Amino acid sequence: MLAVVPPPVTVRVPAKVNLHLAVGDLRSDGYHDLVTIFQALSLTDEVTVAIADDPGVEVHGEGADAVPTGASNLAWRAVRVLAEHVGRDPDDPKVRVVIRKAIPVAGGMAGGSADAAATLVGLASLWRLEISRDDLATLAGKIGADVPFGIYGGTALGTDRGDRIVPVLSRHTFHWVLAFDRRGLPTPEVFDELDRLRADGDPPRVGEAEAVLEGLASGDPRQLALLLGNDLQAAAVSLRPNLRRTLRAGVNAGALAGMVSGSGPTCAFLCTDGDAAVRVAAELAGAGVCRTVRVAQGPVHGARVIGTEEAP
Ligand code: C5P
Known about the structure:
Layout: E1 9-26, E2 32-51, E3 56-61, H1 74-85, E4 95-101, H2 111-126, H3 133-143, H4 147-152, E5 155-159, E6 164-168, E7 174-180, H5 187-200, H6 209-218, H7 221-227, E8 229-230, H8 233-239, H9 242-252, E9 257-260, E10 267-271, H10 274-287, E11 292-298, E12 304-308
Parallel strand pairs: 1-8, 3-4
Antiparallel strand pairs: 1-2, 1-12, 2-4, 2-5, 5-6, 7-10, 7-11, 9-10
Helix pairs in contact: 1-2, 1-3, 2-3, 5-8, 6-7, 9-10
The structure holds cytidine-5'-monophosphate.
The site of cytidine-5'-monophosphate has 13 residues, from strand 2 and helix 5.
């Protein structure tokens, strides 16, 4: 009798922007304590997981050449972590992962973390596991600090390393323009640069997360625009001074506010509505300050199965 091989599973997973990112001190484990508010955006990667005799990771699309496909790939770490958790052999999981990228690589939008979150959700379906989203998020935290948020999506408060997630009810949609820089920026370098800036002086720190939560609840992008803040911005701009020009160009193009997304170098611009975002994107694209411009809205849901291909 032929064994029935389950069909491949495809998962769509969002990028994130941090509306608020307060960075505390460097801890002994190499991480910083964070208080952050994430929002998931309609800029998504798609990840397909399939049973295969030739295991491994394949990456296509935006920035694919810069993504490692070996053991350091976060999606592959997700395969190993889940295999171990359910008693499968992590060294021979018989799984192939195909990633189609639209989220910029090393862009401060948690693209690699999103792919890991999608892999967990996809494998849970492929392997027909009875596992809750909360349990997947706990496993996700072992892969990287931004991975648990990719499981939930929406809008959420993150504390500890950013991996302790509390969903925030947000009934309003916000409109964003994203400016991708020409090269990525490694997250650890940006945190190191912030530590260096803080050792040398006293760069300004963002205020309290509560005000941002109130801005979100108001649904008024003008109010929210005044409250956006990111402690990593000074460090990202210090490493990439050209970002100053990008941020200025977005606001000159009509955005309500611009900020570096996470550790950068992607810049995120909050706009009044969808039409304004399209106008800002067009003008920013013409300003020659960045590689590519995208329009997105948030919040959107987290990693979610969008289809299974029935085997022929
Ligand atoms: O967990 P993840 O691998 O995504 O983190 C990448 C790097 O970013 C860490 O190794 C650390 O240098 C920095 N980081 C940090 N504090 C955090 C999250 C990330 O210093 N809360």
